[in-house]
Amino acid sequence: MAINPLDLLKNLKEVQQSLGNMQEKMKNIVVTGTAGGDMVKIEMNGGFEILTVKIAPEVINPDDPQMLEDLVKAAFTAATSKIKDKMKDTISPLAGNMNIPPEFMGT
Question: Other CB atoms closer than 10 Å to residue 39's CB: what's the count?
Fold first, then answer.
């Protein structure tokens, strides 16, 4: 299916407004990524800002810093993945309302 660039330009103002609305919605989204059976938790907002980091004392082992580093990395990755899923859920209806073909959105 060919995409007509003129059709996309006609909707530019609507696209800008919708993207602005989406950015505001994303600011209010907060997710928690966890690792190690919830022993490490990272709370992140839709702007990919880390809000809190919680680490259970029992995973802090000065003889094994690599384990804690891995748990923090895993919790961060989980939180980031959740934000990306929320973004996809937010963008999908937006794309559908503007009749943008799925292949244009990379899905």
Answer: 17
